[in-house]
Amino acid sequence: MNNQKQFSDRIDWSLAILLIFFMMASILAISSAQTTEQYGNMNFALRQGMLYVVGFVIISITMLLDMDQFRRIAWVLYGFGIVLLVGLLVAPESIVPYINGAYSWYRFPVIGTLQPSEFMKTFTIIALARVVASHNETYGHRTVKSDLWMLAKIGVVAGVPFILINEQPDLGTMLVFIAITAGIVLVSGITWKILFPAFLTVGALAASLISIVIFAPSLIAQYFDDYQLRRIYSWLDPYQFSSGDAYQLTTSMSAIGSGEIFGKGYQDRQVYVPDNHTDFIFAVVGEEYGFIGASIIVSLFFMLIYHLTKVSLQTKSPFNVYVCAGIISMITFHAFQNIGMTIQLLPITGIPLPLISYGGSSLIGIMFALGLIFSMKFHHRTYMFSSDEEV
Asked: What are the boundaries of the signal sequence (predicted)?
């Protein structure tokens, strides 16, 4: 076995360079967004740069452990995340403030706010990957019964944090957990005799729910808060609610549309968009750098997803494959949902644009997840007299 590789050869430089490009794009967009009067003297761009430094430190620490070690401590991480989520429901408001209609953050002196669900996403990915890998190792001969048993175990592991996040409530994060679970289920090996009717049923229920909301809202009004229904109506017909619930959406579309092909230039915006340094950072990019700038951001995400997919195809470890699938699903859904909601393609859910939007918990959580990808490269082994590699 040949382990005599140079340290630099063990670094995933392609991913590192991509993250540097994301960092530059993020700081540039945030430095422009913070010029609006709503932020005063707060230097969010400087803070984002510092958060990226912390993120790279997190990646370095994560690389110290190989993926087998992460598999062994999967339940420790998962349990720790569950404790943090439960704490949000029982801690006093002095520690868990009510922000943006939810109890989703811890508030600490000096450090600021911390959103545990951002870390729980990756903890859940690791736990689900262990469940699927262990199940497939135990049940070498697959049957419908064994697949249903695996699906039940996946449902329990993903369902606990899902229920706790629903109590906050945080719809956007709940949708991310659904995307993560679906991504891992798709590569888990469960037969399509189960998956096809399951996904078909979910799709039919979603379509039915949307139809009821549009044409017969009185049937479900008692099961939803008024603001949730208003959010759907404002998405379907934003200009009817442009002075209220759809104000962010209409201003976002105006900003992006006014950027045209080349944009208005750095710090040369005319359209005011609330929360433009966090959830609506893509509106800043669209207005100032136009279609060209927006395309660059989208291309960065395509390159990131392509790289993560390539890693998952190269690895020989099933556990690593499931981890990659969860991370790919998480980042893809985040990016698609965030960009989609700024252009009315999808409803507004308060999901940040990963690696671009300002936000400590979101950025550190994503960097921790990507640290697992770095670990796969850093600890891979090449065996003599064999073309097989374990990544």
From this structure: none
